[in-house]
Amino acid sequence: MSSAQYGVRGQTAVITLDNPPVNGLGAALRAGIVESLERALADVAVRAVVITGSPRAFSGGADVKEFGTPKSGMEPSLPTVIRVLETSTKPVIAAVAGVCMGGGLELALGAHFRVARRDAQIALPEVKLGLLPGAGGTQRLPRLIGLEAALNLIVTGDTVPAARFEGTPLFDLLVDTDVLDAALSFADQVVAENRPLQRVRDRQVQEPQAEAFLAFARNTVAATAKHFPAPLKCVDAVAASVAQPFDEGLRVEREAFLALMNTPESRALRHVFQAERAAAKIPDVPADTPLRKIAKVGVIGAGTMGGGITMNFINVGIPVVLLETRQEALDRGLATIRRNYENSMKKGKLTQAQLDERLARVTPTLGYEALRDVDLVIEAVFEDMGVKETVFKTLDDVVKPGAILASNTSALDLDQIAAFTRRPQDVIGLHFFSPANVMRLLEVVRGARTAPDVLATCMQLAKQIKKVAVVSGVCDGFIGNRMLARYGAAANQLVHQGALPQQVDGALQTFGLAMGPFRMGDLAGLDIGWAGRKRRQAANPQAYTRIVADALCEAGRFGQKTGAGWYRYEPGRRDPIPDPAVETLIADFRREKGITPRRIDDDEVVERCIYALVNEGARILEEGIAARASDIDIVYLNGYGFPLHRGGPMLYADMVGLPNVVRSLRRFAAEPGADPSWQPAPLLVKLAEEGKTFN
Questions:
Q1: 174-192 pLDDT, tens digit each
Q2: Where is the 3-hydroxyacyl-CoA dehydrogenase NAD binding domain (predicted)?
Q3: pLDDT-derived band at 169, boundaries 50, 70, 90
Q4: 605 in the same domain as 593
Q5: Of 108 and 535, which is predicted with more confidence?
């Protein structure tokens, strides 16, 4: 069924792209455009053709859901559609409003003329999916806006308003009014003046210093692209627009596009693109679930976490009542918020007026009574169930009916917290990651009795404060920290067996992680994990096994905050320095345990640590704590520094091959004295045996 609507206005045919929400150029729409154009060409009364979309979108580009499917290569392909437009014997005018991105912009470039609203959003963002524009964008855009401007747009994938290109041949007319009416008038002028058809392919790139500029661009891009091949391929393709005939440039572009499509980096980026959108959907909560109004928020605790949480809301205009128990702690928290904004102001990201407006949205208080009329309250107090009990019982007495009561706990039992109140349906977990005003991830923890509208409201609110939200069920550590515990245990075991912290960190950082587990521990504070271990030890003393990190904490080495942890730190600096004292402590620990150290290579470090993540992720998926494997990937990419080019631990396992992961886990599990958690998760084994993947 065609997704293009055909009509005639006077002497002009109007082809309207009709594939909501953004007119993705799927197979049906591509076919509809060609059929409509042929109809217009066959109608002798039609003198010109306008192709347009909706006020929201001319076209958001290719339909990424078709990538890797037979439909993506189905004719007419996008290059075919553009060729049909470009070779039309009647003038074709693109009328552009809303988003005009990727294949959508390439389609517009195939028209003979372009009329756009000034606020139309223009981009070639394929590089963000590990690709390059594959339908002539790298060849046509430099011919219209110049080499440097085109390369910047293509390599960054940035979105810019159409008004930016006023005075260039990219747009023949920019308007602030209805773009279709403007395009129809423009078409009448073209016909009346009998203007020659303007094909972009017939123009030349005007850049006398092209060779020198491209050499500079290659060096710059190579230094910043790191793990991703697409940016350099973009440079190569754009260079062909200067040095090669148009058709040869198209061939260079197409070959690079197809090659990039098969790279693991592009697969990872496309996976992440779709995973972020999937994470926003909750299978048993309809999209039209009524939302609760959130006009005022309360935050309990003005420490690092509470202050960061506060900034999220005041940044988007939501006033916050910030509660502390002591005036000096409240003053310190407010000063930190102000300092953070002042740092942004020094970088030119904020004005004084904006800083003043945001701080004016904070109402500091020392009393719970001030929270009486808030719509949502988030506690960010000490991670202790007794403290949480006091807070939630007080909130239950004070805060108005219908308000959402949220805990920022990173591990505690949310159902137990909810049971402290007479309204467990209003209780939810909102686990922000530190620094909360910077990190994108928000784990939304759904309790056994959390109401659907509470969940839907918090997911919408996450979007409003620009977070990537992932729903987690209730378990110790939820998705992220539960997996982190297994990852950390694997890293500790490697140190017990013969590796040093700097080797483990180095191997995982070479793999692509932003920071190895021991550096991360020093940054976060080793006392936090120690408190959790002591809590679990108290609950189940027989199950607890002492680890090296306990010895570090007993020696007062809590990480950067004390100048020593797994590494030592010079005063005022954060560079980790390997410490012989730690090596001695580790050697003493091994002797105490009767462990003879062995040689461990970097591949084994990566295999054990990453497969530990994958295995626990499979259990989390099997238990329904996470709805999708891709949700787990989003958690690790946005909250734990997992390398983007790997696509998350679960996609990485898919790419390695699940049978290979299972074989390695079974080998680890068969070692003498191995932790039972090395046994492969039943879901992992099942998928491997069935030849399936997580994603």
A1: 999 999 999 999 999 999 9
A2: 296-472
A3: very high
A4: no
A5: 108
Residue 302 lies in a domain: yes
Three-class secondary structure of residue 7 per DSSP: strand
* pLDDT reading at 494 higher than 90: yes
The one catalytic residue among 38, 66, 86, 126: 126
Q: How far apart are CA 538 and CA 544, in angstroms?
A: 9
Q: Show which of 261, 277, 310 is a domain's final residue.
A: 261
DSSP 218-238: HHHHHHHHTT-SHHHHHHHHH
Specify the pTM: 0.90
Specify whether 553 is located in the same domain as 665. no
In Å, how far are 283, 626, 633, 679 from 622, measured between CA atoms? Answer: 16, 8, 15, 15
Rounded Cα gap, residues 192 and 195, in angstroms: 8
Q: Which of 35, 75, 86, 106 is catalytic?
A: 106
Domain extent for 483: 479-498+599-624+627-694
List the beta bridge partners of residue 322: 299, 364
The answer to whether 106 is a known catalytic residue is yes
The values of phi and psi at residue 453, to 5°, are -70, -25
Q: Count of domains in the chain?
A: 4
pLDDT of amino acid 2 = 55
Single-letter residue type at 410: S
Do 493 and 539 sit in the same domain of this protein? no
Active site annotation includes 126? yes
